[in-house]
Amino acid sequence: MEDTSSFGLRQAVLTWLEQARELHSIPQNATDAALAARPEWEALSNAVALSAPMSDHRDLYGKITGDWLPRWPVILGQSGLGDATRLIAQGTAVPVEEVADSFVAFCTEPAPSVEDWLLLTGDLPPGTRIPLGRYTLQTFTVNELAQLGPMPALHGLQPGGLDFGLLDGAPFVHAPNPDRVPDRRGTHWFDFSGPRPEARHWRALLPLILWSDDLLHVDAVFKVERGRYFELNKNHVPTTLETYPDGHGYPQESETREAGGFCVTSADLPRMQAFCSAVTAKIDAVMDGATSGRKLPRKRARRLERAARHLQQAYQRTHSDNGVWEQEADELHLDYVIALEALMASPNDKHEGISKKIQTRTAALFPTPRLRELVQNAVQKAYSTRSKYVHGDLLIEQEESEKLAELRELRLIVRQAVLRWLILTPIDTEDLAPRLDAAADCASCKRAIDEPLRAFFQDAPSRDGIQA
To answer: pTM, whole model, 2 decimals?
Structure first.
């Protein structure tokens, strides 16, 4: 049986919306504050207070003239009821029964968890859902996205609102954020984490980067409270114009989401899920060392995080497969070299000759002499460029196409090096670096590197062609 107070609230909302039909003279830009100043507001406010008392729903209330009362910025603004009122006043057909149901749920239902969401570039099959540790990679339909907001019935009616049609099938990574508490008072959305908030979510992004050599970007990082709040701003969705002929052959333009080059087919999904599951397990095993009582596992966890963050940063600054901003091209060498040093250096290394050790250890991760030579030369060039850039020396003038080709090659090498390091790295106190050093001169030591890699790629192959 429906709760009496909730029924009363629903009737109060329906009355409020019915009265909105008489407001034909209301300006199109009437504010929520102006609506809350109308005589009809008191009855709605009282109905909210009766069905959603402050003892259970503190975030609906504020202190007004000494009394705790429902706050109009929440009741009208965050709920979407203000938008529904203006639309009705302007003569728009609004499904008032659905609006009333959504409003009652907004006020009376328990608070959902706060979730971190990342909008990614990419084109993935409908219905994709891949676990990534505590995160999930998922695509959504327009209707599923609309249900995440407080007033699904208004989808497509609100002027200036986010067009969910642009996001139909877009890939999102999402996870509950246990450190945030739902609060509709507007005091918890300030984010002081720095200019690259996607770096906090590297554990979800790294398996995807390692799966394919296609570029993957994070277009937006935002918060979601399902049924209450969908923070994504329409300006954060990259779009492009596509031209197509109409029925008479005349060109027409349509705005679509810019998906980039990260493409996954339906046939790819089972392999991708197996790969992401295996890599996530490897990441978790290394990161468990962060709480170890032993020094090496703790250091190894910090080094993996550092390498992943720099690799992610380099990806974000690489806007196309063969394109980076000219003023950032040399800086990308810093990110790639830092990522390699974080993983390939050993706690027992001396400072002298460290660059040579990084080159040979990185090369030892690859199976053939030709690949090892290519990798060693590429890492050597990266160190040279990094050193000249850091010390302010003049860099060798290169054709832009040549520089971009070198950066792309280095990106793919570092990506593979991170993956192979993850596969081989033990979770105990054994150091991987001496094993890589020994592989250069010892056939059996080289087999001890190659065989685990070959076994991993046989069970969980990545999509590109460089395998063990």
So the answer is: 0.90
